[in-house]
Amino acid sequence: MIPVIRKQNMPSGTIFSLLLALTIHQTLTADVPPTVVAPETSSPPASPATPGPPERGSYNVTNATDAVCLLARMGLQLNISFISSSHGKTVQEVLNLHPNLVKFSGSCDPDSATLILTEDNITLTFSFSLNSTSNKYHLSGLELSAALPDMAKRLVFRNTTLNYMVGTLGHSYMCQKEKTLSVTQDFSLNTFQLQVQPFGVNGDFGAAEECDLDEDDMLIPIIVGAALAVLVLIVILAYLIGRKRSHAGYQTI
């Protein structure tokens, strides 16, 4: 008699457990894409913030007899372009001169005068010329010598053919507005609340001759006032003409 082997049915709970284990195993062994780590990049150095308007300083030059021969009051801001030794490219620096740190000197001659301002490693020289025939003076030259920390070497910017700050002998030149004086391709000077008199000083500033920027500011209110006056005149004339016509319409027959 052949023995009969009976198959035992696997409990359904066991089957479910095996299927769950197989699913979890396949999930864990599935290919997982490698994590991509972004390379670290160094951000470019931040450019220095542009300073606000500079403080106004007062400077003077005396002659051999200790009499004041040149007067200047102004705020000064330097715009310099140069090749940075750390970055290897051209950068622009905007610097304010600080009157409390500035040392000033200069000289006066009959037809020329200089004002020299020095702060740390910066020296700024103004050269004025006087035309004795026309009694007119002007700023004829500007020179800047600077050795900033990021400069490979000291740089000198110079222009001796300028024609700024034109004034009359015995009078001062004034420009309250910000004005940019272009000196060289790599250097310009911004002036603020400027008043200068390099010749004919008699104790204090002479009568001021204003720059074009200040005169334009005065011209605008004058134009507006004149336009309003014309408008008022037109209204008055229109009223008078209308009133005259009204009376003409009621004449006694």
Q: What is the element layout, followed by pairings?
A:
Elements: H1 12-29, E1 57-62, E2 68-83, E3 90-96, E4 103-108, E5 112-119, E6 122-131, E7 136-146, E8 155-159, E9 164-168, E10 172-175, E11 179-184, E12 187-197, E13 208-210, H2 212-248
Parallel strand pairs: 10-13
Antiparallel strand pairs: 1-2, 2-3, 2-12, 4-5, 5-6, 6-7, 7-8, 7-9, 10-12, 11-12
Question: Unreliable segments (pLDDT under 50, ≥5 consecutive)?
Answer: 4-8, 40-46
User: Between the first and last Cα atoms, what is the distance in angstroms?
Assistant: 159 Å
Number of strands: 13
Structural class: alpha+beta
In round numbers, the mean pLDDT is 82
Gross morphology is: extended
Largest sheet: 7 strands, mixed
- The CATH architecture term of the domain at 57-214 is Beta Barrel
CATH fold assignment of the domain at 57-214: Porin
Text of the CATH class of the domain at 57-214: Mainly Beta
Percent helix? 10-25%
Instruction: Return Rg in Å.
Output: 41 Å
Please report the number of helical segments. 2
Family: Belongs to the LAMP family.
Domain Lysosome-associated membrane glycoprotein 2-like transmembrane: 220-251
Membrane topology: Single-pass type I membrane protein
GO cellular component, one term: late endosome membrane
